[in-house]
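Structure tokens
________________
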Amino acid sequence: MSNTSGPGGQVPPSAKAAASDTESDLSTILNAMDGEAAEPPSPPKQGTSALVLGAVGVVYGDIGTSPIYAFREAIKPVAGDTIQAAHVLGLLSLLIWTLILIVTVKYVFILLRADNRGEGGVLALYMLARQAMGRRSLVVLGLGIAGAALFFGDAVITPAISVLSAVEGAGLILPDLVPWVVPVTLGILVALFAVQRQGTASIAFWFGPITALWFITLGGIGLWHILQNPGVLAAFDPSWGLRFLFENPGLAAVVLGAIFLAVTGAEALYADLGHFGRRPIMIAWIVLVFPALVLNYLGQGAMVLADPATAADPFFASVPAFALPALVLLATAATVIAAQAVITGAYSMTLAAIQLGLLPRMQINHTSHAQSGQIYIAAINGILLVGVVWLVLVFKTSGALASAYGIAVTGTMLVTTCLAVIYVVRARILPLWATALIAGPIGLIELAFLASNLSKVLHGGYVTVLMALATAALMVSWWRGTQGIEAKSAQQAVGLDTEIRLVTKSQLAQVPGTAFFLTPGRKVAPTALLHSLKHFRSLHEKVVFLTIETLRSPTATAEERVLLEVIDDRFTHLTLRYGFMETPNVAQGLAQARRAGLRFDVMTSTFFVGRRRPVVTARFGLGQLADRVFALLTRVAADPTDYFHLPRDRVVELGYRVSV
């Protein structure tokens, strides 16, 4: 287990809770004491079919929209007056085998088995690798930060390129609509981000059916064109792809970056493991998603071979004119769903990063009473909206944005591969030689794709690089500052047992009721207690030292949640444990502690919270810059009272300065 204290005082930044009104906080505790449920109701269990349909809508929304632009961008460098059949078959072969090796083999068959208590994603894998190492590793930490930072870059670009590519299809229906593509795209995106505050539970019901219809449509259109030119099935032979790479090395360096657009969104398979489970995600991919994608790419290739003029926009050219409006509408709906899935993923990633001490506290709002994973983070929503709008206004077309897209995806996947290798080897799941035999080819392929995408840095790829660097810099500054303050606090700390002995011997005025002091651990006296004694010269008749721990697993079991230790008749130490994918709620935790034997009256209780304000010392260089960023982040961090879901009218905050 890890327990990290935050810059707001003796308050661990890893602990998290949704903000709410004081009356709501008090009623939660009081209702729980009367025997009512303290935890929100668990959602009803769903059958495999429902989970498969849900996975189709959420997990595969992003990768499902890739056919709109992936083959178009891949064939653009080779499209000229005449398009050679060998080039088309080579590109199709590369597309198909990229889907097989990266998505099917790496994610579906391998990574879905590397779960952290059922949860997946780059930060869950980071915690698995850290546990397997058995000690803190800056290399593993760096990989975790890099993966999270690249994911946030992906979360900004995906809504922009997905919706923009779909709306561009309207220009094929009425050329006069072309000047309105950007305004309409912005309108859709602004509306999408605006509804996040209310939650998406009411419309999420339709995500699965709409996306399933989308994949059926993709497969049907592709099959129709394949039947007109069955020779395109030769692309299943990997020699076509290899021949294209070796015979056209100059083109290959450019084309590989576009080919990788076909697997954007593959990371969602792993990230959403906890929401749907391994089996439904595998079934959805093997039965529906993979066949539909392959059929559509082959269909686009067959059509281009029959009519090279369609290479300019093979996806929307693949249907007759009378069906184009319906396809544009369906594509727009599918891209909005894909964007929604990425936005939700950004919220979940932020929650995990806060819990792991990589980001400052942010206000978390729950948008569903039935599902704890339905959250909304206003700060992240605003940042994503500004980034998405900026990208659409600057790049204006999905083709221009495609250059910036690949770096985030390839970088995230390569980080995932590295973390998986560390976990598998250090946990002794496989010997090093077997791991290298499996991961080596995949890693080399991803390196080749990354090198191809890096060649586009000056043509838009710099956007992803700058976003990732900025996010990583914030994470490093926060982690560095937090660790520095903790080290300094440890040097100045007073032992809890020592402080208790001194308090017992002293003549302090006794205040009726119970005092809760938030503290980073069992051995350290909370600074809020020391300041309280110094200024008030009194202490409550009952004192509870409250520690909130973040586990290295995504969720805590009922047995792990509460640990109660009675020190003596006056002093008690209470530990509430939460996983890094949970939003700890002190009010609900105290209700559980009450059932575990803790006795207190909420109406005569006071919660003491320490607030530390970092003060930057006179230094020069990158260290001072990081310290200033850290100090700024502490000022914009969420209020600890709201953050920990404490009764607002029963909180006393004691602030003090700490030099960094």
Q: What stands out?
A: Confidence is low (pLDDT under 50) at residues 1-27, 32-44. The two ends are 26 Å apart (CA to CA). The beta strands are 365-366, 375-376, 509-518, 538-550, 562-566, 571-578, 605-615, 651-659. The longest helix spans residues 324-355.
